[in-house]
Amino acid sequence: MTPGESAQAGLILKVATQLFAALGYDGTSTRQIAEAAGLNIATVNYHVGGKRELYLAVMEAAHRAEKAALEAALARLPGDDPVAAIHRVADDYLDFCVDNPEVPALWMHRWLSDASDISELERQYVLPLMAAVTEALRPAVEAGTIRAEADLEYTVWTVIWAVHGFAKGGVLDARGRRRGAGDRAALRRFRAHLHQSLHRTLGLPGDPR
């Protein structure tokens, strides 16, 4: 692939990510992607092979980014202060979703049955990450830092649901205006709430941050 072709492929992937995140797979056409990229459909098809192949490439890139962020966060779990480390993992995940809002948007579309004919992504991408997080937390259960009866899997899912919802939709203020992750006060308040919820659900010792 020439440098020019590589640049075009990168542009197509970027534009497709934005459109799939905004409109979903079912609501996006190859023609829309081509027009937004300033290219013709033939050029898009040449680089990616079609809408399905492009969607799979977008989801793979999103997964790689999320996987790298989670692996870096989980690598910091072992340490002298496991409670602080657990809170840092939540912070890292929140920061990733705030900095990369297209990732939670892509998955939230799938929660609403978008691209329902492409069913392997959850098994291929989501389940391994869920397993990695829950297994990384088990030593804290064995050490008594996390209460034994805590449901680790559902706790992780609850964090995902909350973080994705906030990163994608934000919250409404008293005047009915939507406040999202770009609002520092809203983000600070959500972060504090996330920590309190996680702390209490897991039964962590001490006061939540």
UniProtKB/TrEMBL annotation:
Keywords: DNA-binding
Keyword Membrane among UniProt keywords: no
SUPFAM superfamilies, sorted: Homeodomain-like, Tetracyclin repressor-like, C-terminal domain
Listed InterPro entries: DNA-bd_HTH_TetR-type_CS (IPR023772), Homeodomain-like_sf (IPR009057), HTH-type_TetR-like_transc_reg (IPR050109), HTH_TetR (IPR001647), Tet_transcr_reg_TetR-rel_C_sf (IPR036271)
Protein name in UniProt: TetR/AcrR family transcriptional regulator
Residue intervals of the HTH tetR-type domain: 6-66
Keyword field contains Kinase: no
DNA-binding region positions on the chain: 29-48
